[in-house]
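Readers outside the structure-tokenisation community will struggle with the description of the input data as it stands. For illustration, here is how one protein appears when written out as sequence plus structure tokens:
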Amino acid sequence: MTIAPGSRLGPYEILSPLGSGGMGDVWRARDPRLGREVAIKVLPEELSSDRDRLKRFEREARAASALNHPNIVTIHEIGEADGRAFLVMERIEGQTLRELILEGPLPPRRLLSIATQVADGLARAHEGGIVHRDLKPENVMVTQDGFVKILDFGLAKLAPPETNAASLTEMPTESVGTAAGIVLGTVGYMSPEQASGKSLDFRSDQFSFGVILYEMATGRRAFRRNTPVETLSAIIRDEPEPIGSLNPQTPAPLRWIVERCLAKNPEERYVSTRDLARDLASVRDHLSDTTVPAESLPGPPHARRLLWPVLAGILLLAAVAVVSFLLGALAKKTPPPTFHRLTFRRGHILSARFTPDGQTVVYGAAWEGKPVQIFSTRPGNPESVPLSLPSADVLSVSPAGELAICLGRHNIGTWETAGTLARAPLSGSAPREILESVAAADWNPDGSSLALVHVVGGVFRLEYPEGKILSESPGWISHPRVSPKGNAVAYFDHPVQGDDSGRMWVADSSGRKRALSRAWYSAQGLAWSPGGKEIWFTASDQGVIRALHAVTPDGSERLIAEFVGTLQDVSRDGRVLVTRDFGRSRILDRSPGETRERDLSWFDTSIAADLSADGTVLLFTEGGEGSAGGPTVYLRKTDGSSAVRLGEGSALALSPDGRWALSTTNNNSELHLLPTGVGEARRIERHVESYQWAGFLPDGKQILFAGREKGRSARLFVQDLEAGARGLRPVTPEGAGAGYLGHVISPDGRFVTGPGADSRFLIYPVKGGTPTPIAGLTEGEVPAQWSADGQFLYVYRPIEVPARISRLDLSTGRREPWKELLPDDLAGVNVINAVVLTRDGRSYAYSCGQFVSDLYLVEGLK
């Protein structure tokens, strides 16, 4: 049968050729029945005559046609006429991705727009059990308006079943260019397992997609060599040249995605192509208007914060990005401000204030891991002079030069700190103590009284003057600042402890209060403007890059400047003190047989969740800038191998056989089982409104969790993973045993620890019954693990630095010091938390929060 313009193929009128390749010729045609144009791929005669291969192809093509996805070309019909098989598809007006790449590297925005659509289409196909097997730029069409269509699903299965790596080099596929180009084009996009003749799954498509992404970013083939055999060898053994060296403008998060797709071992690629699509979408959505070179970026886009108090102190680090301080976009009508760096040592600055002369600055800082101390400095002088005071932080400076300070400031939560309020002269002589458990304070204009945040029984109270309660919060209150007239106090109310989101409020001396701002994702740093007409504050709508805002007492808001930092103070002439903060959470681990700790941090906020029984595998959450779109679950071998992303959510526990990771969604409303190897994620049937903690029982078939049913108080439950609602059983009465930390299950699965009514931990029988106290456990301590023989509990006090772990004999209450955890780099370390260890005590891991600050004087902000 001869096919030419003007001829007919079945009911279709052939109009003109569109392309030609090894898998057949493509023609533009018209369907007179529906009056539409289509594209028809006419398969080669040798394929049409092989009935077995044709049937396999038809099954694949029909499955692909059922996908019904906007980024996958629609297949209208599979037909046969005069002995020739053909495929009828929607006609796409546009260019192939190959034609676009021939013009050079694609700009990041266009690249990510195309890549996200391709990944979304692939994810849909993989969820339907279909693997493309021949993904390459020729098989991706881009319309004039930027819409993407993936072509030729199922055509790769036309290859004979016995096809091996050698014969694949000659496999005909749709391509452009010479015959040699066809061979290299096909070979160059194979996965290592495909090039080795091994069985394939969806992760092979991920590798091919990674090769395409590499080419889109650099304009160069990742594995092109002189011959097909050399190209195959490079795919199996070689790494491509780093993207950053070929195109430094490639965003770092995109580069990391490509590197993961190009992992030689399929296990190190994405567990789900849907996760790959989400990562690309997140990079696309967070891409800055200015493309920053990869080496200057701190990490991938920020994720939503973790809300668990179990991570106390760790979230502190996720709240600040490592971004250039001068990168902010200032209001266009305002001349550029000037920045003067005031501090040059390494550590954490807690607060800073101008003194009455407006030229001297006093600040509280913990340098090089030492206790917090108050220093003074002046612009233009790089030296800071310590005041002759005990360990303290500055809270406020009165007009007469008297300091309100916080002695012994320490963490009492994630962000929350407290100490003893004292007064001291600026000269630094002995302070006079006033009140314990004070989190913050500010002098009134004449220095006669203080507004302060007093923590009483765990409740944060705003008092002004001392003793008169203006406001209380179920969460926490921060940054109280008295107005220049002394008749009102502005402050942040954060509704959830352990979370710095919140609103700005103003309370007057009569106790009337009102919210001046909407709820901010992150809100810290507040001061009244000169003259008191506005309140200036630093906050962010999403992510961690706080901008400087101003709001009037009637609620009118404006943006002053966009930059990274925390507002500390505003002088009477409008100069501003801000801290530039670099924060991260590290994971330190000691593996079996090792004598030194290894840093297993992945991105910027790595939080340990669990260790395998032999201590060789670490499960952790990445909760800061490095997680794209929200907290993310990772698995990493403790030998330092690369981490593997398992999926979204917060990590909880590894199953006893190591095959599954238990996680909770970002809003704590669902539990998921994420496969640590090949497999698909599973959603655990939900029977409660929210989850606080969960872990596996020793049989791996049941889980224990702390959760809250709708309209009820939280408690502990057992759930059989296969029995559904029938397998759900409460372990404790309402209000007992629930919480976010300190739950460890005994080796035999008969007992679990959990908090009691007075916050001290108890041992609860899993089958129900009366809990028993933990002998020898002191207030504030939490269990970290049960010993293998069930006779001891490892316990520690969260947040403390160093973390001192003891073993408690459960029968006698006898305490035995076990280990003191202290990182080698103490600069800015303020919390040690998330301690996990094996039952035999041979391996452990822990997270430590590290917060490093610089203080700047900024002039010219209006």
